[in-house]
Write a structure and sequence with these properties.
The protein is mostly helical. The chain has 11 helices and no strands.
């Protein structure tokens, strides 16, 4: 029995040795190959989900169409839903790359940068419009338990808008925003709304969406440049200081009176 065990061990070592020679010492998948495999998986998923829907597409089908082993796909994505989130995350990497390739983008006005940003998003989504029709709402209207999947996408979006705001503030094109984070959050909600509108837009060359972006960005930027959010905040501070604080003694007197009544009432009840 012991001899059989030794024999099996030797055979295993021999097989491993041969495999190492065939494979080579540096056969480890490098970063570039990993990215290629990831891209192939996403492209395969886009194709299959577009043709048969997210529910019907399977991880095995996606892996095989990508030219990868059934188990290999799980080294990149745990589920097909994770592949969908990966698609949207990668698109924002693509947006950043596209914007960086515009040589004079830093010379664009605040309005122009924002408008170009949103138009670039739709431009990159265009080849996969049918895929978006089947996945966008379920992805971006996900329940709170799926927020961790949305977060990397949102962080990339917010970083781009934050950069556009910072650049405009530095050259005094717009005033610094008291509610800056809230304003940038508004553009995240705006992005979701614009994509949904675009998916329903049946006008020639999506002219309806183009006009909507043009007019809505103009309105938003006009409000930001006018510092409306800052003025509302200033007015709130003024009202608080001059009306709420000035009436604190009056309110305190009334609270004391109420407390007095309550004590008498409770006292009467105890008698």
């Amino acid at each position: 029995m012991y001899n059989c065990y030794i024999l099996l061990l030797k055979i295993k070592l021999l097989i491993n040795s041969v495999y190492t020679k065939v494979r080579g010492p540096n056969m480890k998948i490098n970063k570039e190959q990993k990215q290629k495999n990831r891209n192939k998986i996403i492209l395969s998923a886009v194709d299959l989900v577009t043709s048969k829907g997210l529910k019907s597409a399977t991880m095995r089908e996606i892996a095989r169409q990508a030219g990868l082993g059934d188990a290999t796909i799980y080294n990149y994505f745990p589920t097909k839903e994770a592949i969908v989130y990966g698609y949207y995350e990668d698109k924002f990497d693509g947006v950043i790359k596209q914007l960086k390739q515009i040589k004079d983008f830093n010379e664009y006005t605040f309005d122009e940068q924002l408008q170009t940003f949103f138009e670039t998003i739709l431009e990159l989504f265009l080849p996969d419009r049918e895929f978006l029709e089947k996945t966008f709402k379920t992805t971006f209207f996900a329940l709170s338990q799926h927020y961790s999947r949305i977060r990397p996408i949102k962080e990339k979006f917010m970083a781009i808008v934050e950069d556009i705001f910072t650049a405009a503030i530095e050259v005094d094109e717009i005033p610094d925003q008291v509610f800056r984070e809230m304003t940038i959050q508004f553009f995240w909600e705006y992005y979701i709304g614009i994509v949904i509108y675009w998916l329903k837009d049946d006008t020639d060359q999506f002219e309806g969406t183009t006009v909507l972006i043009d007019k809505s960005i103009d309105l938003a930027c006009t409000s930001i440049k006018a510092g409306i959010g800052n003025k509302i905040f200033d007015m709130g501070i003024f009202l608080f200081k001059n009306h709420v604080l000035s009436r604190m003694n009056f309110i305190k007197d009334h609270v004391d009176t109420i407390h007095g009544i309550k004590k008498k009432f409770m006292g009467a009840k105890n008698d």
